[in-house]
Amino acid sequence: MAGGKRSEYMPSEDDRASSFAQIPTSFGHELRACLRCRLVKTYDQFRESGCENCPFLDMDKEHDNVVNCTTPNFTGIISVMDPTRSWAARWLRIGRFIPGCYTLAVSEELPEEYQALCADNNVHYVPPKRT
Ligand SMILES: [Zn+2]
C-alpha cells in the first residue's frame, strides 16, 4: 500500500477498497453477524464475498455456510476503523481483524463442525459467554 500509515481517522477510499470489510448496505432484518469474528454484513454480502476474516468458512462458495455461520440475533454494532489501536477492538478481541462493522455480542455458538474447521485452520475461536 502506498503512502504508509495515515494519521487521520478516516482512511482514503483507496485504502478502504483494499483492506476494509464491506460496510453493510442496509440495516434491516437481513443484517447478520459472523459467529466466529462478529463481523456484521448483510446476508447477500456474506453470500457474495464471504467473511473477510474467515475465508476458510467458504460462505461465498457454500451458501448453507452463511446460514450456519452467521446469525441475525446480535446486540449492538460498532464500526472499527483501526482495530490495532482501538481499545474497544482489543476489548472485543477483534484487534487483529480487518476494519469493518462488528457486533458487540452474539448469543449463539458456532456449530461444532465449524469449530472443528477453525481448529483445522489454526484459527482461535472464542465461544460467547453464557449469561
Ligand atoms: Zn467471520
TrEMBL record:
Xref: InterPro entries: RPABC4/Spt4 (IPR029040), Spt4 (IPR009287), Spt4/RpoE2_Znf (IPR022800), Spt4_sf (IPR038510)
UniProt GO BP: regulation of DNA-templated transcription; transcription elongation-coupled chromatin remodeling
GO molecular-function terms, A-Z: RNA polymerase II complex binding; zinc ion binding
Keywords assigned by UniProt, alphabetized: Nucleus, Transcription
Ranges for domain Spt4/RpoE2 zinc finger: 31-107
Gene Ontology cellular-component terms listed: DSIF complex
SUPFAM superfamilies membership: RNA polymerase subunits
Official protein name in the record: Transcription elongation factor SPT4 homolog
Organism field: Dioscorea cayennensis subsp. rotundata
